[in-house]
Each structure stands twice: as structure tokens, then as C-alpha cells.
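If you are new to this repository, start here. Below is one unmodified record pulled from the training split, so you can see the exact layout before writing a loader.
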Amino acid sequence: MERNEKVYQVIIASDANGRMYDHFEFLARVSVNAANRLLDGLLKDIRNLQTDPFRYPVYNRPYLPVGKYRYILTNKRYRIVYQIIGNQVFVDDIQDCRQDDDKSILNK
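And here is the target side for that same chain:
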């Protein structure tokens, strides 16, 4: 059976990529295995955005334009924040949900 799914190009912003690796490096100081699981989980969820990025909820915050961003909760405490423009998905932030939203790079 042929699948006619639209495939989106996923682009990770350099700030989001840096944040992902900051989280990885911090966790690796405690457990390399846990850090590898974190990175694997984040990358798996980011790759899944290629097929249906609209399945995740809208990320509304007072400091963001309404309806611009969506998010995925992943690895029990991380939030991947992204936007969809045409056939591209831009991952703009990766947040530790235990931290205050004010630390978001989206708030700049």
C-alpha cells in the first residue's frame, strides 16, 4: 500500500541545538546512560515532526503570538517548542519544564 503522507523538513535552530546539548552535558555528569537516553528521546521526537507536526498542541504564552508555536512533552520533563511554516518545521527551543518559562529563548 502506498502512503501519501506529506513529509516536512525539520530544522533545529542553533540556540535550540545548543540547549539540547547543554541538557545532555549536564545530565552526563550524573549518568552517561541517562544522558544518551535523553538525547535519543529528544531526537526521536524531533524526527517524528517530519510526518505530522500538527498532532501536538498549540503553545500559548502571554509573550508569544497566539497560535504560532506548538510543543511536544518528551522524556518526562522536556518541552520541544516548534513552529510550522509551509512544509518546514522549525524547532526553536528545548526547555526543561522544571525551569521557569521566563528562561525560554523564545522570550527574548
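Two things worth knowing about this chain: The beta strands are 9-12, 70-74, 78-85, 88-96. The mean pLDDT is 89.
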